[in-house]
């Protein structure tokens, strides 16, 4: 028995709905035979004068009313069929989209290292749309046709088995041809899908990088690679359509050869007086009625094989293990401890962090410094459990972060990154993301504390101003202050600041320093700063180099030590005097 739930990755409800849709479709198919049977009976009556018999008008009126009843039944069956197939398939696709998005949210960041955004977008939108289309337009019809054709075949077998055999014997051969060519079709579909993904990726890259492309004069080169990807997608689409076309047309010809066979067998039986003219004509009419849906089925079958690629991709995504953990534990203290931590992003031989043993005290500022690529951001990502360590443990208040549910852990942390993510929504809602339960007053208070109030009030609609995709209508400093307002509203006990004041003009920097000083009061703060003068007053400075801790202590101690920190600090102080 076909396990539709597994094949099409359905929810329990979706599976039940699909079964109902198949039954509804089969009923529609069978109901369509009613007007057909009435028509044949009328046809038989009308032919009676040719056999020197009289038309029974009494019977004709009866058939007329039967015809009306049949039409009403067809209408009701179609209505039911529409509701069961289309509405339920759209619901199922919506549920699948939501469960994919939910699953993606819980995946470790290592997953995103190997996937690009266009592939995930295709997963959520494209694959689900394909599933929606095929669950509503293909699967119920295909299976319902199979059921109704089988029923009709059995009925005709009882009536005249030789003619029934002649009508249907070509059908399984045609289906077997499509089935056995599925490997070729799969290969063609796979290549087509890959070329589609590549093209989507290139279009996305082109649009996202349009500023750099223009400013660096890369129009020709980048356009060439986009053009190549689009041409390849076209080539693969044509190749797939051609390959599928040959297989489908071939199988349709096989089915239609049944017409010749039926005529041949019919003529043979008629000449031997083994069948009468009217039943013979009836069989010819049946061929016309039955072959139509079978030919349609043969064109639908490759679509089903094509869907399999999308479903396989969704299955891989949904079976990728998520990051789980306890969401009941309450953290009482916020000191952070790294014990013998080793970490690598992809390859275990290339450690981004090696044997890290550090303590980040609560209620104080700890700065992570060191040359570019030394592992500062990696430490902050591990604290937030964006990734899990390869070896060792990270504890917050004595609790191993690996045992905590990532979303629960996140409720204890606020982030202020340099590359602020803002949504195409009002300023008010962008700040409120920090705490969805906050009142209007609290949002405004946070905005004031983050020095946002001034520029917000100058905007045409104040807090209700829509700020464009990723805050495109704001300056870098304004965007950063909004992200600080968000963090202030969240009021989490641990604050992670990543390059928060880099690349800002002096005025903005003053505002941001003021906002930050309010944000960090009484919190466990981890700052990643390149400009060492901003962290001179930190309670602890951890110096990293090549993924290892090389020095630790306060500013004065490290300066006296005359090690890496002192060297970096000196170079930066000297560079302050430079002019271009
Ligand atoms: N997502 C990633 N996948 C693979 N390798 C990564 C990833 N992110 C960082 N790395 C590598 O890990 C090492 C440490 O990177 P990290 O971002 O922690 O450095 P950093 O000290 O914060 O650098 P910077 O100051 O330039 O931001 C680098 O060699 C970097 O190339």
TrEMBL record:
Keyword flag Protein biosynthesis: no
High-level lineage: Bacteria, Bacillati, Bacillota, Clostridia, Lachnospirales
Domain ABC transporter: residue ranges: 336-571
GO molecular function, one term: ATP binding
Keyword Transmembrane tagged: yes
Entry's transmembrane regions: 21-44, 56-76, 134-157, 163-181, 242-269, 281-307
Domain ABC transmembrane type-1: residue ranges: 21-294
Bilayer topology: Multi-pass membrane protein
Keywords from the UniProt entry: ATP-binding, Membrane, Nucleotide-binding, Transmembrane, Transmembrane helix, Transport
InterPro entries: AAA+_ATPase, ABC1_TM_dom, ABC1_TM_sf, ABC_transporter-like_ATP-bd, ABC_transporter-like_CS, P-loop_NTPase, Type_1_exporter
PANTHER family registered for this protein in UniProt: ABC TRANSPORTER, ATP-BINDING TRANSMEMBRANE PROTEIN (PTHR24221:SF397), ATP-BINDING CASSETTE SUB-FAMILY B (PTHR24221)
Location in the cell: Cell membrane
GO cellular component terms listed in the entry, alphabetical order: plasma membrane
Protein name: ATP-binding cassette subfamily B protein
């Amino acid at each position: 028995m076909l396990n539709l739930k597994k094949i099409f990755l359905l929810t329990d409800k979706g599976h039940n709905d699909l079964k109902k849709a198949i039954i509804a479709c089969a009923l529609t198919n069978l109901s369509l035979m009613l007007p057909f049977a009435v028509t044949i009976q009328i046809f038989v009556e009308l032919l009676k004068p040719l056999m020197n018999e009289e038309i029974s008008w009494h019977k004709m009126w009866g058939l007329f009313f039967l015809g009306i009843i049949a039409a009403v039944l067809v209408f009701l069956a179609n209505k039911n069929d529409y509701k069961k197939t289309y509405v339920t398939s759209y619901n199922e696709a919506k549920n699948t989209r939501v469960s994919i998005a939910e699953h993606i949210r819980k995946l470790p960041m290592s997953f995103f290292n190997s996937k690009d955004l266009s592939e995930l977008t295709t997963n959520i939108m494209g694959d689900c749309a394909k599933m929606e289309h095929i669950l509503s337009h293909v699967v119920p019809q295909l299976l319902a046709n199979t059921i109704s054709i089988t029923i009709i075949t059995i009925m005709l077998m009882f009536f005249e088995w030789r003619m029934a055999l002649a009508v249907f014997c070509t059908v399984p051969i045609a289906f077997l041809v499509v089935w056995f060519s599925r490997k070729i079709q799969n290969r063609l579909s796979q290549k087509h899908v890959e070329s589609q993904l590549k093209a989507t990726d290139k279009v996305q890259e082109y649009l996202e990088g349009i500023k750099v492309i223009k400013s660096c004069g890369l129009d020709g080169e980048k356009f060439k690679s986009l053009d190549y990807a689009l041409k390849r997608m076209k080539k693969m689409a044509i190749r797939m359509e051609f390959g599928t076309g040959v297989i489908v047309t071939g199988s349709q010809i096989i089915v239609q050869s049944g017409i010749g066979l039926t005529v041949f067998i019919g003529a043979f039986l008629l000449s031997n007086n083994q069948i009468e003219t009217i039943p013979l004509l009836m069989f010819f009419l049946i061929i016309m009625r039955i072959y139509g849906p079978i030919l349609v089925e043969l064109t639908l079958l490759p679509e089903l094989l094509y869907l399999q690629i999308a479903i396989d991709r969704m299955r891989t995504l949904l079976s990728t293990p998520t990051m789980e953990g306890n969401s009941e534990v309450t953290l009482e203290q916020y000191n952070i401890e790294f014990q013998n931590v080793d970490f690598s992003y992809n390859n275990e031989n290339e450690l981004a962090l090696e044997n890290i043993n550090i303590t980040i005290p609560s209620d104080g500022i700890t700065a992570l410094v060191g040359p570019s690529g030394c592992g500062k951001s990696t430490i902050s990502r591990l604290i937030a459990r964006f990734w899990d360590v390869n070896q060792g443990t990270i504890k917050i208040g004595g609790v191993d972060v690996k045992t905590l549910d990532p979303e629960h852990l996140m409720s204890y942390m606020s982030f202020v990154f340099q590359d602020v993510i803002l949504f195409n929504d009002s300023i008010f809602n962008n700040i409120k993301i920090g705490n969805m339960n906050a009142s209007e007053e609290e949002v405004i208070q946070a905005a004031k504390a983050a020095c946002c109030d001034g520029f917000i009030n100058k905007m045409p609609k104040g807090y209700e101003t829509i700020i464009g995709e990723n805050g495109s209508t704001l300056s870098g400093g304004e965007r950063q202050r909004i992200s600080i307002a968000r963090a202030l509203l969240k009021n989490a006990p641990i604050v992670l600041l990543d390059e928060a004041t880099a690349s800002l003009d002096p005025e903005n920097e003053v505002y941001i320093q003021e906002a930050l000083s309010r944000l960090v009061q009484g919190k466990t703060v981890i700052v990643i700063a390149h400009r060492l003068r901003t962290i001179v007053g930190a309670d602890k400075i951890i110096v990293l180099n090549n993924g290892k801790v090389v020095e630790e202590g306060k500013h004065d101690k490290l300066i006296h030590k005359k090690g890496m920190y002192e060297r970096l600090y000196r170079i930066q102080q000297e560079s302050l005097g430079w002019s271009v």
